[in-house]
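Sequence design from tokenized structure. All designs in this work follow the same two-part layout: the structure record, then the generated sequence. An example of the structure record is given first.
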């Protein structure tokens, strides 16, 4: 989501006459996009901005700005804390960055803070997103979140849920495929609560079905599905539409119903596992991934064991896992952060070691199977290409660079916990 936000702002800036440079030393503007979902990421922003101090002293005319969730959260405070900071723009105001820069360049102000949250009731449409990848694109379908999980800063810094009209989403994807994009990833904090604001009122399942029916799109992915909202209707559309990748990201967060309740996730362990069983019972194999938080306030050793057993039961293809960190304005921020950091670290390591073992076994089952992969770019070794399966597994194989952006048929020959090795069995398609 942050990558896409940066691409949107870069597009707006290029459209307004700016050009991109890879060298901050000679830049007229350095703009940081920021994430505040965990404390560490938020702290890092201040460290990065601090590193700009020398540059700013040498070239005071250079403009320095911050956008994204940390900007939204901190507002004016950032101007007070960071010497030479000129611009702080919140999550609902980034489309105004070119105008704010004009005002700064005209000398109308030395610093501008714009963190207004209520101004734009619908997601802003951007025509000129500057996408780095010519064949794969992210597309926003909804913004914000109404779920208020007890640990999560997102609803506070990104505001209430707002969906884009289906016609605008379909139009954007049609334009992308006309320019050679073959894979689209739909983005939203909770894509399953998508509701078309136009009179057609499409649900997420309806939207998925229409997008998957676009003639030139070869692969469609989406993230994130809140487990409480993922249902049969979406699974049925996925099964009926081969364009939709056999991959689901269903963040569990914990395997303990008591912790899930405290987290305000609105599902129990049993309900989560029932959704997994529904997916596993489908006539095709789906790859499942998830997010986990360890050390949430009150998480006992027994609760943590339940998370481990959930991991064993499901056998996820990959997970993201984090130590809990209290975030401003969230419900859990007021509760005692009861688990010492050493214990959190220990639990995280235990969880990740178990997942490594599971992944090694899951990936080993792939040996001998054939996949059609989309080639992403070069691998680390000479002549090696990095690609992804429909199920989002990373596959390395040897081949020439002109296959980048193409679909290639491969047979898996080797597996480690994070990547698969393969050989080509066909030419590009
Ligand atoms: N909308 C998505 C994810 C948003 S944030 C969802 O509902 O799953 C991405 C992940 O960051 C979350 O799934 C969660 O695992 C993690 N996360 C969010 N807040 C956190 C916090 N305060 N401490 C640690 N991890 C957190
Ligand atoms: Fe955060 Fe929960 Fe919303 Fe995901 S669903 S963004 S974790 S509040």
């Amino acid at each position: 989501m942050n990558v896409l936000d940066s691409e949107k702002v870069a597009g707006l800036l290029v459209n307004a006459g700016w050009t991109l440079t890879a060298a901050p030393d000679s830049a007229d503007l350095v703009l940081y996009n920021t994430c505040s979902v965990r404390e560490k990421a938020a702290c890092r922003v201040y460290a990065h901005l601090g590193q700009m101090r020398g540059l700013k002293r040498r070239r005071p005319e250079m403009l320095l700005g911050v956008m994204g969730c940390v900007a939204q959260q901190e507002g004016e405070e950032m101007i007070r804390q960071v010497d030479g900071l000129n611009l702080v723009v919140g999550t609902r105001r980034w489309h105004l960055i070119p105008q704010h820069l004009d005002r700064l360049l005209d000398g109308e102000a030395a610093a501008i803070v714009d963190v207004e949250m209520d101004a734009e009731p619908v997601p802003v449409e951007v025509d000129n997103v500057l996408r780095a990848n010519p064949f794969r694109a992210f597309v926003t379908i909804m913004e914000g979140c109404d779920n208020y999980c007890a640990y999560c800063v997102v609803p506070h810094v990104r505001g209430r849920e707002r969906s884009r009209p289906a016609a605008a989403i379909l139009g954007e994807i049609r334009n992308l495929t006309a320019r050679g994009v073959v894979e689209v990833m739909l983005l939203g904090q909770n894509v399953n609560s998508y509701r078309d604001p136009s009179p057609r009122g499409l649900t997420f399942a309806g939207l998925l079905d229409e997008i998957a029916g676009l003639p030139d799109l070869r692969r469609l992915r989406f993230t994130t599905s809140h487990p409480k909202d993922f249902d049969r209707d979406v699974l049925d559309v996925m099964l009926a539409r081969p364009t939709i990748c056999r991959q689901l990201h269903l963040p569990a967060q914990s395997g303990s119903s008591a912790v899930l309740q405290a987290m305000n996730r609105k599902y129990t362990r049993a309900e989560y596992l029932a959704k997994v069983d529904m997916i596993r019972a489908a006539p095709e194999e789906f790859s499942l991934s998830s997010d986990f938080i360890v050390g949430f306030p009150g998480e006992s050793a027994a609760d943590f064991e339940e998370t481990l057993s959930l991991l064993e039961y499901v056998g996820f293809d990959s997970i993201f896992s984090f130590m809990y960190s209290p975030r401003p304005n969230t419900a859990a921020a007021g509760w005692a952060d009861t688990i010492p950091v050493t214990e959190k670290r220990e639990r995280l390591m235990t969880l990740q070691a178990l997942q490594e073992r599971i992944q090694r076994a899951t990936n080993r089952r792939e040996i001998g199977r054939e996949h059609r992969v989309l080639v992403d770019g070069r691998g680390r070794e000479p002549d090696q290409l990095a690609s992804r399966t429909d199920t989002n597994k990373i596959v390395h194989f040897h081949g020439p660079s002109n296959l980048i952006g193409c679909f290639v048929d491969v047979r898996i020959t080797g597996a480690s916990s994070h990547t698969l090795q393969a050989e080509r069995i066909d030419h590009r398609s």
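The domain at 136-364 is CATH 3.80.30.20 (pyruvate-formate lyase- activating enzyme). We note this feature because it recurs in several other targets discussed in the main text.
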